[in-house]
Amino acid sequence: MGLVGAGLSIGIFALCMVWGIFITDAVLKTLHLNILQIIYPGFAFTVVGIIIGVAEAIVYGFLFGILFVWLGKVCGVNH
User: Fold this and answer.
1) Of 26, 13, 27, 4, whose CA–CA distance to 56 is shortest?
2) How many Cβ atoms are within 10 Å of 53's Cβ, its own excluded?
3) For the segment 64-75, what is each residue's pLDDT rounded down to a tens digit?
4) Phi, psi of 41 (to 5 degrees)
5) Integer angstrom CA distances of residue 38 from 2, 33, 53
6) pTM of this prediction exceeds 0.85
């Protein structure tokens, strides 16, 4: 489940990147960039910043997947 969470997180990150490219309003673009920088510290619209964002998305997604499985086991959810 950790790998699934990481994959989903990368997909959401990629969607946000594409969304940021198509935003034309300067205020919305700034807001979008600020939100991405809050969620992914070190992120910027540069090659290094995007690599940092992808790495953080993988880690966050993996950890969220592990947490999700653990909560399922704690709550007694069976397959």
Assistant:
1) 13
2) 24
3) 889 988 888 888
4) -60, 135
5) 23, 9, 11
6) no
